[in-house]
Amino acid sequence: MFSHSAVASLNNLEMMVYNYVIKNRDKVMYMTIRELADAAGVSTTTILRFCRKLSCEGYSEFRVRFKLYLEQNEPQQANFGASEIISFFKSVNNEEFDALLDDAVDIILSSERIIFVGAGTSGSLAKYGARFFSNIGKFSNHIDDPYFPVTNDMAKNALAIVLSVSGETEEILRFASQFSLHHCKVLSITSHEHSRLAKLADFNLSWHVPQTRIAGVYDITTQIPVIYILESLGRKLAKKLTE
Fold first, then answer.
1. Residue 32 DSSP SS3
2. pLDDT tens, 123-171?
3. What single DSSP character describes residue 107?
4. 215: alpha, beta or left, given left = phi > 0 and alpha = psi -120 to 50?
5. What is the CA radius of gyration of the chain?
6. Within 13 Å and on the Cβ side, how many CA atoms surround 177?
7. pLDDT, tens digit, 9 for 90 and up, residues 93-108
8. For 121, phi and psi rounded to 5 degrees?
């Protein structure tokens, strides 16, 4: 029901509905369209657009299909942490997402070296990605300081893989822009393809998991999808390097 292509088609308001549905799946099937709209902070028109993008003619059909989806795919009640991860893996377990990974690997293969970029938690994953790719045999390094200077020599024949949950962090956007100005290709890995970083990048991989913050500031969004994407890219890369 929540395929990668369907979720990727949602705009920012519709993503608010999706995030609420994923976090409150045990309540949604019993809510009226007005109750869901009020809870998600959107209009009923947005709810209807959301339903149509999931191939439902209206809200009534959505509730029926959503209930069946839960019964067929989640026979045992999972806690929130498991639920969001399960939803992610179901959305990417298809040929469409696999083809996106293949396209990304082709870009990686055409680059002489890889520069992983991120800040905060994404900076730690950038370091992990660089080590993982280096183990495979692809020259890679990482930058976790968004004020690190970008030079022509650094960017020449390189690919910057930029990690960001929101895709809206100003320092990371500035960094990605500098790589682009130096004619370095940018591949972004973000939580949503409608973010500014995704639009700035030459290629984007998105993972569509609801963001979670403590006190509205501290980001504790799961990073399991990012690790899965990095390792999937690495394994595909390793296979092509040995062909």
1. coil
2. 999 999 999 999 999 999 999 887 888 888 888 899 999 999 888 888 8
3. H
4. left
5. 19
6. 10
7. 888 899 999 999 999 9
8. -60, -40
